[in-house]
Amino acid sequence: MNYKNLKKKDREVYNILFKERKRREDTLEMIPSENHTSPAALEGLATIFNDKYSEGYPKKRYYGGNEFIDMVEILCQERARKLFNVPHANVQPYSGSPANHAAYFAVLKPGEKALGMDLSVGGHLTHGTSVNFSGRYYKALSYGVDKKTGRVDFKEMEKIAKKEKPKLIWASTSAYPRVLEWKKFRKVADLAGAYLVADIAHIAGLIISGDHPSPVPYAHLITTTTHKTLRGPRGGIIMVTKEGLKKDKNLIEKVDRAVFPGTQAGPHEHQIAGVAVCLKEASGKNFQKYGHQIIKNSKTLANSLVKKGFRLVTGGTDNHLMVVDLRDKGISGKDAQELLDKAGITVNKNTVPFDPNPPFSPSGIRLGTPAVTTRKMKEKEMERIADFITQVIKKRDKKTVSEIRGKVKNLCRRFPIP
Ligand SMILES: *Cc1c(COP(=O)(O)O)cnc(C)c1O
Asked: Global pTM?
């Protein structure tokens, strides 16, 4: 895309765009929920499919002129079904939060109970936080992690499930560095008679590459984003599994009606076209290699940080992310984030389990490798990044930060964004 029209018609947006492009080129994106979307998927997104209204579903639309829109949405659905190995995929959710909204809407009535992972240990806003619709309109219960191991506390979960009988249980992570044990989640869900919803927003790409077990044999519903490890345009998908159909033969209809007309109107068909491209790319051999490398990079980064004296939540990682506990370093997560930003390393502050500090100034930072792996960085570069992070956090002076800034820029130049 050469942006020649944009340049002519709107210099202001054009100039800001090029500043952002430069920022991206010259910095290391280490936020685990972010990635550099493939150019082909971006081209799919920036299309005239944007112009159509297509409320409804393929072949059952409320507007005329949708024959090609139908083709692109059907293609996207087929690719999602095949890739994730599920009987039904609705590709209309605008993003991860709307997909989760639809999951609640499909199986709960307002005021009914849902059990989700606590925000501070890796749950998501939409899993029952009081400030979110999920905590306002539904009765939210939460489970946490074991104080010693930092792993999901299934005993606690079982107790809550037996006593409270929630109707929906979330199995999910956005800051949990370990494998999600789907079978154990399902056991708890069965104790309560609940729907088990696997929200794979972060790990969808790793499931496709075979680097994280699939929830398909255990979950009734699966929700995901398309822009994290999956590396596509921002979007969401909600899927029904065979297990889901065994539990509730009307689940497909419930899900589709929950998305439209329940919680959304006109689908973003340009976004669906971009997601279709991303799903095609994710089905190739190169994507498998990409997933394997994310994990190798993540483990190398984690091991290097541990060797340099950092404490990681659960002691390490099995997936694409890690949470560094900074309490023994005398720096808050917020200050560490700001210092690293100055050095060109983009991370986000994050709570640690049982964090004594408040969420706007928590005790940890969250790091991930999906974006740097997209730049083709490997283990050797991860060791260097661990060294950069260590120097910035240990020394904290202007001179060190600016020295590291220079080194980060040089590293970035050697690994251009595709
Ligand atoms: C990112 C994320 C979402 C929400 O996605 P948005 O696209 O930001 O709405 C939902 N669930 C989990 C676990 C996530 O990490």
From this structure: 0.97
Q: How far apart are the CA of 174 and the centre of ligand 1, in A? A: 8
- 96 pocket-lining for ligand 1 (C-beta < 6 Å): yes
Q: Which atom of ligand 1 is nearest to the CA of 202?
A: 15
Provide the CATH topology of domain 43-282: Aspartate Aminotransferase; domain 2 (3.40.640)
Ligand 1 geometric centre to CA of 225 (Å): 6
DSSP category for residue 353: T
Class of domain 290-414: alpha beta
Q: What is the pLDDT of residues 185-242, one digit of tens each?
A: 999 999 999 999 999 999 999 999 999 999 999 999 999 999 999 999 999 999 999 9
CB-ligand 1 contact for 33 (6 Å cutoff): yes
Task: Return the domain boundaries, the chain.
Answer: 43-282, 290-414
DSSP string, 291-303: HHHHHHHHHHHHH
Does the Cβ of 174 fall within 6 Å of ligand 1? yes
The pair of structure tokens assigned to 217 is 């044999």
- Please list, residue by residue across 364-402, b when 16 or more beta carbons sit within 10 angstroms of its beta carbon and e when fewer do: bbbbbbbbbbbbebeeebbeebbebbbbbbeeeeeebbe
**Residues noted as catalytic:** 53, 55, 199, 225, 228, 234
CA distance 135 to 283: 36
Residues 6+ apart with CB under 8 A from 9: none
